[in-house]
Amino acid sequence: MKKVLVVDDSLSVTRQLEKIINDSGDFVCVGHAKNGAEAIKMNHSEDPDIICMDMNMPGMDGLTALRSLVMLDKAVQVVMVTSLGGVGDKFTEAIKLGAKNVISKPFETENVLRILRAL
């Protein structure tokens, strides 16, 4: 099973995504970070196959963390997570920075799993 790190400051969003991941049979959630700085540390300690990271968080946001993660590891697999209202320009910026895809909130289980399985 592929290991997934969930990065989001919202506990309810984190729980939803963890349930989708853990119930899939293909993935296991190996941890939860509340911001980009924690994500960078946990990427090193947990060595996940995929990182699902919110774009908007207090402290270090997802796009800033994405820049750092890609600089540290060119092979890192990051999928950004955003609300429907937050797509647009940030979606394009995330892909340019190295994100593999973007998952929109609210989550649709099949869409989340399709995106993760494609990696």
Regarding CATH, which class?
Answer: Alpha Beta
Alpha-beta classification: alpha/beta
Taking all residues together, what is the mean pLDDT? 94
In what range is the share of β-strand residues? Answer: 15-25%
Strand order of the largest sheet: 2-1-3-4-5
- CATH topology, what is it called? Rossmann fold
Major sheet characteristics: 5 strands, parallel
Q: Give the helix proportion (percent range).
A: 40-55%
Task: Count every helix, treating DSSP H or I runs of 4 or more residues as helices.
Answer: 5
Low-confidence stretches: none
Give the count of structural domains. 1
What is this entry, summarized?
This protein is of the alpha/beta class and 119 residues long. 45% of the residues lie in helices and 24% in strands. The mean pLDDT is 94.
Can you describe what's shown?
By secondary structure, the chain is of the alpha/beta class. The chain has a single domain, classed as 3-Layer(aba) Sandwich (Rossmann fold), CATH 3.40.50. Helix content is 45%, strand content 24%. The protein has five helices and five strands, in the order βαβαβαβαβα. Helix 3 links the parallel strand 3 and strand 4. Helix 2 (36-46) packs parallel to helix 3 (62-72). The longest helix is centred in the first third of the chain and has 13 residues, at 11-23. The radius of gyration is 13 Å and the shape is globular.
